[in-house]
Amino acid sequence: MGIRLLLVDDHVVVRLGLRMLLESEEDIEIVGESGTGNEAMRDVARLLPDVVLMDIGLPDISGIEATRQIKSQYPQTAVVALTIHEDEEYFFQMLDAGANGYVPKRAAPEELITAIRAAAANEVYLYPSLAKLLVRDFLSQQGGEAPEASLDALTPREEEVLAWLAEGASNAEIAEKLVISPKTVARHRENIMHKLNLHSRTELVKYAIRKGIIKA
């Protein structure tokens, strides 16, 4: 079953270009196009796409606000930002709104396609130069936070799964690497999130960086 994708951009030419690019991918089905944030929210309710490819600069409400409302009402729908904006303000606001990915419009087509597939698998994809902003923000946070759960709470196998998750591997990829079933990986992932009081892949990456599980 393919990835059902909704395109959101106020420029018809941009949507046409995206359609031409993405329709060649066998696993991606474009189910609709929206030109404004309000149209996007209506189309998500009507079409129930797996992924929304969201521009930030829309003529009515921003893509950030549209993302926030979509994720609030349809948490199973993933959102990937595709935007000209590469500054910290928009980047962090979009992540806070619940986006699964953030890709600048200057990115290579392969990176956009990778981001869409990652989002459909409930993973997070961040363009490398923007990921550095996230790492820097995580590392700059000092004090004032509740004590974090220790890695000692995890089993050795859960630590292995945590490391692969933090590196961006999917459940299927981890299952293959560790010679276990994807269902077992999903169970380990659920246990990890519960034990460490984490609620998203982004929080998991943040934790892994601070603990030195992956390098910044």
Structural features, described:
- The chain is built from ten helices and six strands; from the N terminus they run E-H-E-H-E-H-E-H-E-H-E-H-H-H-H-H.
- The longest helix has 15 residues.
- The radius of gyration is 18 Å and the shape is globular.
- Helix content is 52%, strand content 13%.
- It has a six-stranded parallel β-sheet with strand order 2-1-3-4-5-6, sandwiched between helices.
- The chain is of the alpha/beta class.
- Helix 2 runs parallel beside helix 3 and helix 3 runs parallel beside helix 4.
- The mean pLDDT is 85.
- The protein folds into two domains: 125 residues, Rossmann fold (3-Layer(aba) Sandwich), CATH 3.40.50.2300; 70 residues, Winged helix-like DNA-binding domain superfamily/Winged helix DNA-binding domain (Arc Repressor Mutant, subunit A, Orthogonal Bundle), CATH 1.10.10.
Low-confidence stretches: none
Largest β sheet strand count, sense and barrel closure:
6 strands, parallel
Query: Which sequence of SSEs, written as H and E, runs from N to C?
Result: EHEHEHEHEHEHHHHH
Roughly how many Å apart are the termini? 36 Å
Gyration radius, in Å: 18 Å
Number of helices: 10
> Oligomer, anyone?
single chain
Gross morphology: globular
CATH top level assignment of the largest domain: Alpha Beta
Fourth-tier CATH superfamily name of the largest domain: Response regulator
Q: Main sheet: which strands, in order across?
A: 2-1-3-4-5-6
The residue fraction in helices comes out at 40-55%
Mean pLDDT: 85
